[in-house]
Write a structure and sequence with these properties.
The chain is of the alpha/beta class. It has helices at about 20-35, 80-85, 130, 150-160, 165-170, 195-200, and strands spanning about 1-10, 10, 15-20, 45-50, 65, 95-100, 105, 110-115, 120, 140. Strands 4-1-6-10-9 form a 5-stranded mixed β-sheet, with helices on one face. Strands 5-7-8 form a 3-stranded mixed β-sheet. Strands 2-3 form a two-stranded antiparallel sheet.
Length: about 210
């Protein structure tokens, strides 16, 4: 059994609103359950709205959330992400998924949209210092995202793999692992048999 806790952050200056509607998050979690059930893995989830915006986190219609930047390995984790990870900590053995308004990169001192639906901090992608600090095994998802994003990012965490490292170890990164195929019931976003075996070998989720 995998335990997931989804945190919905709030954005705004005077009037705080949820970055993502709870029904959207619930639909993501049901899809996560359905996809992982194909690997005979049960997913239990809870959803919580973070009522108080953590210190160091600033989100509004013009300012998104500073995303971990995977342009190079190890992944750069900006101060805003560290502030969130330090302030909102799940129980041991629980995968946290943080829903924010939109993800932005801060490379070279400027900010622009990250052009991605979500990001995961798998230990394989982080520096030893960031792993020691506890910044690993976190998932961030922005407001406008494809419905399979949570399930896809969870595979990064559970397999502790990047796209390239997964391909080297398990073969072609297809099915749910592949980020570009359409999300159809008839199969393209399903978990392959090799992925299922790999996932089962790595559960319950190690913390």
């Amino acid at each position: 059994t995998i335990k997931v806790h989804a945190y919905i952050l709030k954005e705004g200056l005077l009037f705080k609103t949820k970055a993502v509607k709870e029904e959207v998050v619930a639909a993501d979690m049901r899809l996560l359950q359905e996809r992982f059930a194909q690997a005979q893995i049960r997913v239990d989830y809870t959803i919580e709205t973070v009522e108080s915006i953590p210190q160091g986190v600033t989100m509004n219609m013009r300012n998104g959330f500073d995303s971990p930047d995977d342009a190079a390995i190890p992944v750069f984790i900006p101060a805003e992400a560290k502030a969130l990870f330090n302030a909102v900590v799940p129980q041991a053995g629980v995968i946290p998924i943080y829903y924010v308004n939109f993800l932005q990169l801060t490379r070279l001192g400027s900010k622009w949209p990250a052009n991605k639906d979500g990001v995961a901090t798998a230990p394989i992608a982080l520096s030893a210092a960031d792993v020691a600090a506890g910044y690993h095994d976190r998932i961030l998802i922005q407001r406008h995202h494809d419905s399979f994003t949570a399930a896809h990012e969870a595979m990064h965490i559970l397999l502790n793999a990047l796209h390239a490292s997964y391909k080297a170890e398990y073969g072609n990164p297809i099915m749910l692992w592949h980020p570009t195929t359409p999300n159809k019931i008839d199969g393209t976003k399903r978990i392959s048999s090799s992925q299922a075996d790999a996932l089962k070998s790595k559960t319950p989720f190690p913390q």
